[in-house]
Give the backbone structure.
Amino acid sequence: MTAPTDWLAIDWILAAIGGWIAIGAAGVLRPHNFYIVARVLFPLGAALCLLVAVAAAAALFAGTETAVLPLGLPGLPFHLRLDALSAFFLMLLGTASAGISVFAAGYFRKGEGTPPGVLCLLYHLFLAGMAMVLLADDAYVFMVMWELMALASFFLVTANHTIPAIRRAGYLYLLIAHVGALAILLAFGVLQADTGDYTFDNMRAQALSPFWASVAFLLAFFGFGAKAGFLPLHVWLPEAHPAAPSPVSALMSGVMLKTAIYGLLRVGFEILPTQYAWWGVLALAVGLVTALFGVVFAAIQTDMKRLLAYSSIENIGLLAVGIGLALLFTGYGMPSLAALSLTAVLYHALNHAFFKSLLFLGTGAVLHATGERNLGKLGGLLRHMPWVGWLALVGALAAAGLPPLNGFVSEWLLLQSFLFTLGLPGTFINNLVPVVAAGVALVAALGGYVMVKFFGIIFLGQPREPRLASSHDAARWERVGLVWLAVGCVALGLLPAQVIALIDPVTRVLVGEGIGPQVASQGWLFLAPVSAERASYSPLLFLLLVAASFALSFVLVRRLYHGRLRRAAPWDCGFPLLNARMQDTAEGFGQPIRQVFEPFFRIDRQLPSPFDRQPSYRMEAGDHLWHWLYLPVARASDGVSRLVGRLQQGRISTYLMYSFVTLLVMLLLVFR
Amino acid sequence: MTVYSFVAQLLAVLIAVAGAPLLTGWINQCRAWLQNKSAPPLLLPYRTLHKLFWKESVVADGASPLFRAAPYIVFGAMVLACGIVPSLSTDLPLAAAADAIALVGLFALARVFISLAAMDIGTAFGTLGARREMLVGFLAEPALLMVLFTAAFITQSTSLANIVETISGQEFAIYPSLAFAGVAFAMVSLAENARVPVDNPATHLELTMIHEAMILEYSGRHLALIEWAASLKLFAYSSIGLAIFFPWGIAHVHEPVGMLLALPVLVAKLAIGGAALALIETLSAKMRIFRVPEFLAGAFLLAVIGILVHFLLGA
Amino acid sequence: MPGLVTQLINLFAALLLLLSFGLLAQRRVLSLIHLFTLQGLTLTASTTAMAFFTGQPHLYWSAAITLALKVLLMPWLLHRMIERLNVRWDVETLINIPATMLIGIVLVIFAFNLAAPISGLSASVARGTLGIALACVLLSFLMMITRTKAIPQVIGFLAMENALFFAATSATYGMPMVVELGIALDVLVALIILGVFMFQIREQFDSLDIRHLEQLKED
């Protein structure tokens, strides 16, 4: 054992993972001791997250490091590898979960179903599982850790297992996670091409025929897509994310979905030697449909966490669009343009981890303070919960993709990479691309709509319930976590050149080129990925100029005129009896989208009749795919199970006859 | 950055800030003439702003700091937008801070802040206005982006200064894709600047308002800033339209003297554009609110077809 | 940079596509007729330009016929029909207008892709516009399919003929004079017959909604 000063980055990360497992075990020792779990164990976990982040950032610029752990089965040790791709995602994991863990330190209170100690164990096992997935260098440890990740998150999702809706959500989540895991396993099976060696190094050395390479890619796309939430395997996301406690939702949405993207990038770009353009077209189509679906559904939700879950589906769709573009460029032999698209994808993954976690944690604080998830019962919370409110504003503006925050930078990069597609051969591709770019622009604009609805209905306006006046703001630990994530959003938005310097080694691993040197040549103030004449953007200058105009107009108005202000009742066009019911409800705010995009939804209406004693109106906007795809599949599997169930006759003589017939058949086969 | 660039930049911003209410006044005059009414004085918007700045600002009891800050943020965003769009000269150092996509983002920022401010007080009209503004915005923003993309595909750059230099620097050529983009841009401008047929800026009926409903609660200097920002937005949109579709007359980077010519050319172009806008407003009737998404979807799809035509014809 | 002729022809082609899309997006019958007239004007202008720049005198005759028929005679006939049928309605559609426009975009992409290799074979100065002409044909066909009243369908049929004419002039410098005269006469006769047909429908069903024609089947 070398001394800690000689440890490589991978050793530090493995130590941190071991530390997490130890913390989890310590939590189980005293499961009901809330104080130790919240004040000691979770902050320790957060510190280890930071350690992982720092070590990973250092490893981005060092070479590839490998390690072999003698865990696992004899003869099948764990092969681990820390290259730039893993390091980037580990950095994402570390920084985002540091904030989430600190928030969780203040969040888990007594009496919430599962005891806090058990939650601590599951949470840290979840973190450990995700980190090991990112480090895995052979299919065995990948699948074991993938399974650990799925199981730990399942138990976390069903933390409040007494509620049947939550149990159902957990079941659906586990089911789709396993369908995906099966596809990933099959993909690895194809990749190892009958050699029996499941290490990734062996898979990289295989030269698969285009047919088998495509089969492997499609299986991987399906499997990782199930975990990421591509259409049509997205149905678990809107159920599982709201059911879980908020820090867990943040972790799942912010980090776990990115491990699926990591897997897709690893298999699609790094393990498979050649990429074909039609893979890109598939990813573009699936990504665009997913993004549009997610954002349109998000706009009509009435539950704040379901809204954020659908918004996650939208962002995953955008990531898939970027990956599709990169595959398209690589397929046509343009690696530098693929590097631009991949930079956009990786940047957006990092951004999403920060702003989505921030928003989910904000909803957690709101849920704790008010006990309400329904948007129709919230409102005016900015006054009573200023910390949560203002930090959630940062998150909402970032999620809407507004400059100068981080969401805008990755969208900007993605749209820039669309502008280069003129060089692609083939008229069909040339025609497809403007349509997809238009779709991405539409999704981005709708994202703004969703975030205005989210922030406006929860934090602005008047409280829709009288007891909201007694909501308390976030506690100290929660504030630290929220501030950490908000600062991350701002920093990622204002310093894009530095972030791209971090992403450059990753794109070099994936496609062999990077836009880092070009960006660095423009200095730290401007972001010009190709050249300053083509496009340039400076978020710092942007912010400075808007702030300068703000300050100048403020001061000038006060000097030239005056700054008198008078408070009075709201004008409301002279209407004297203003009450909170007159504001828009969540359904009302989403109604224009529901009307414009009506074919997307399956609307179930119950209208009151003139003869009802107590007339009521009910409308449910559901998912078509549930009825077209999942219910028929469920019915079919039910039918098949029933058929097989006929074997269970209940009579001993029948069972003995089964054994007898099997024996006869085997004797026949053996003696042939 | 030379002295000339600095002067050009400063001049562009000052002319925009000072001249935007004049453009609004001109459009109101043209509209009155076309409707056979006696026109208000040309400098009336300035007097209105002066009057509003002098008045005391009355703010609702429940208003948060967001409500009070939003007018300044919106005003600042519009000033920056006018500073990026080449109206007099393409020698704008600030153009490196934000390209066409960032410009669209800037308009989106202003729209989001004003919608949030409208929802802040919690009146029915505020949330109505916010919802309708986001409805108009979610289709107008991608349409504008697609129009800018058409120009970007033609000139291989998203920097507006560069687009102007490329199009006006080459020999005169007719770009069919810009014909589509032009129609789409006209439709988007009408929607985003709250003009008939999308929204009536002179209406007093709250249920027919989109933009006006959002600013019902503002008074005094806040209202003045928002009205000024609306004029600036119209000025910015007009400048964008002139820059992409009629860029001749704008001074280039190494022509500081060209700015002397550029100013009267700009005034003439804006005067014609304003009269055309007044004509369109007079000839159209305001649409029902749910026809507006169809209108904007038409603009969006026209812009997409413009790009497709560009790919097909190479022009 | 392509020459002035090609640019001009491209511009007219773009205007034609714009007008076809505009026809698809209209809600009022009167504006449909105005747009159709504008289409005829664009066609006349483009044929005249082609005739001038490529020195083909018979295209001047084509332009004159187009002007007479499509800009003057047919819109006048349509106006008269509308007044006698006492019709000023809104256009009613089978699927809503945004969905129609989306399908329109898909058709445009399809037409562009189809035309790209074919236009390489043509020697005409305006061969890039074959795709646009094909797209206009498909869009007019779509208009005929998705409208439920008779007059918009007739206008769709006429617009389709416009687009075919444009395709002919752009790809092959126009058709032989005899063919053109024959087609022009056919279209005129078709319009008159359709007019008579519409009066018959109105008398039979008291409405011009073509869905009523579904009653005329064996049951």
User: Anything to note?
Assistant: Chain A has 24 helices and five strands.
